[in-house]
Design brief:
Elements lengths: L1 E6 L8 E6 L2 E7 L22 E3 L5 H4 L2 H6 L5 E5 H31 L11 H8 L2 E4 L5 E4 L2 E7 L7 E9 L2 E7 L22 E5 L13 H14 L4 E4 L5 H15 L9 E5 L1 H12 L1 H4 L2 H8 L10 E4 L2 H7 L6 E5 L9 H8 L6 E4 L8 H6 L4 E4 L2 E4 L3 E4 L9 H8 L8 E5 L3 H15 L3 E2 L6 E3 L4 E4 L13 H24 L5 H18 L2
Parallel strand pairs: 3-4, 4-5, 5-6, 10-11, 11-20, 12-15, 12-16, 13-14, 13-15, 16-19, 20-21
Antiparallel strand pairs: 1-2, 1-22, 2-3, 7-8, 8-9, 9-10, 17-18, 22-23
Amino acid sequence: MKLYFIGADHEVTGSCHYVEACGKRFLVDCGMEQGKDVFENVEIPVPASQIDYVLLTHAHIDHSGLLPLLFKNGFRGEIISTFATSDLCSIMLRDSAHIQEFEAEWRNRKGRRAGKEEFVPLYTMDDALGAVELFHPCDYNQKIELTEGISIRFTDVGHLLGSASIEIWITEDGVSKKIVFSGDIGNTNQPLIKDPEYLSEADYVVMESTYGDRTHGERPDYVTELANIIQETFDRGGNVVIPAFAVGRTQEMLYFIREIKEKGLVTGHGCFKVFVDSPLAIEATNVFNKNFRACFDEDAMKLINAGINPIKFDGLNLAVSSDESRAINFDMEPKVIISASGMCDAGRIKHHLKHNLWRKECTVLFVGYQGAGTLGRALTEGANYVKLFGETIEVQAEIRKLSGISGHADKNGLLEWVNHFTPKPQKVFVVHGEDLVCESFVKCLKEEHGLDAEAPFSGAIYDLANACWEKEGIKVYVKSEKPVERHRSDVYARLVEAGKRLMLVITHNEGGTNKDLTKFMNQIHALCDKWDR
C-alpha cells in the first residue's frame, strides 16, 4: 500500500501520482507539464503496460495530457472518470495530438533545411484516439469496486465540467485506509457548474494548493462590467476581442453575454453579433449542453427548466471552418469575438489580434491568467508593439482585464475544503502549487489549523499502511533552472532597465526632424526584428 509522488510537486502542472495496493498498480492523473518547468520529475516506476488503471480527476491537459503517451508506451488498462470528463477528453486529447503533430511538422520543415535530425512528436492522433477508447466513465457519487480491496468514488469539486475529487478505500493484509485526492478545487459561485462538495472522512488527503497564498478578493459584478466594456467599445465603432480558453472560460463568457442580452444592458446596437471562433470551444460547448443534468448548478438548471439554454442566444455565431473564421474580420459591424487560445500564444485568436490590435476603437479583453512569456502577458503589461505572423503591429486598441475570474479556490476556499474532514486526517500532502506557495500553505495548515501537513518533492514514496516515508523526494532543478538562474534574472533586470532608458531617449527626441525620427524608428524596428523571439 504505497503512494508515489511523480508530478506537480512544488509545481502547478503535470499532475501524476502512482499507487500500488492489493496487487494492482494505478495512476491518479497523468498530466502534461505546461509553461515554466522548474523541477525534474521522476519516471513512473513501472512500464506503462503494467498499469491497471488511471483515475482521472478532470480533463485539463495538465492532468490528462500524457494519457496518449501512456497509450503509446503500452498502457491498455481502464481510464476511469466522470462522463463529462470523458466527453471533454475525447476532444481535448485529439486537439493536443494535433498540436504535437503540427509542431513536429513545423520543426522538421525548418530542421531539414538546417540538416537537423527528424523531430518526433510526443504522440500522434492515433495515440490520442487509442487513449480515448480506454475511458470507462461513471456517475458522480457512484461507489465502484475496482478490484478486491479497492473501491473508489468521484465527488463534484466544482472546478470544471466533470471535475472531481476521488475517494479511494484500500484494504490490504488486514489494514484499511482511505485516501482522498482533491483534484483541482473549484471556486464558489461560478457560472454554470456547481460549487465544490465537501468530504468528511479520510486517513490521508492529497490536495492542491494553486492559490494557497492568496485570496481572490470581493467578487466583481462580471455582467455589469462586461456590459459596460461592450457598450463603450461598440459606441466607438469597434470590436470586443476576448481571448478565452476553449473549455470553461468560453462557456462562462456565453453565460454572461446571454444575461446581458436578456436584460438589455447594451443599448443602441440591436441584437449584436457574438462569434465563437474555435472548433474546440464549439465542441466543448456541445459537451456542456450534453452534461447539464449532472453538472449544472441550481441557477443554470432554473433556466433549463424554463426552456432557456444558458449558453445560447440570438446573435450567436459559431465559426468552424477556416473560411468562416476569416469572414469574421470582413464583417464591419461592431461585434464580440471569442477565440482561443486564452493566452494568445496559438490558434485563431492571433489572426483576430492582427486585425484589431491596431484599431484604437477596439478592445481586447483578457478574462484569465496570462503566463510569463506569452503574448497575452506582453499585452497586459503594456506592450506598444507586438509581432504577429512576421508583421509588427502597433497596439492602439484598449487593453482591458475582467479581474477576479478563476476556476480555482483561493486560500480561504482551500482551507474551507480541508477543514471539513473530521476527525483530522493522519496526514495532508500538499501538491500542485508553486514552490514557495506549497511551503507557505503547509505552514498555514500546521501552525494555524493543527494539521500534519507536508509538501513532498517528486520521487517521494509514502507507506500508507505503516504511515511512514519509505523514500523522500529530492529537490532537483531542471538543467535550465539551476542556481545560475539568479544571475540570469539579474541580467534580465538590467535588460529591462535598458528598455526603460530607450523610452527615455525617445521622449528626448520629441520635436526632432522627421528625417532623424524616421532613422531612429527604423533602427528600433531593426533591433526588434533581430531579437523578437
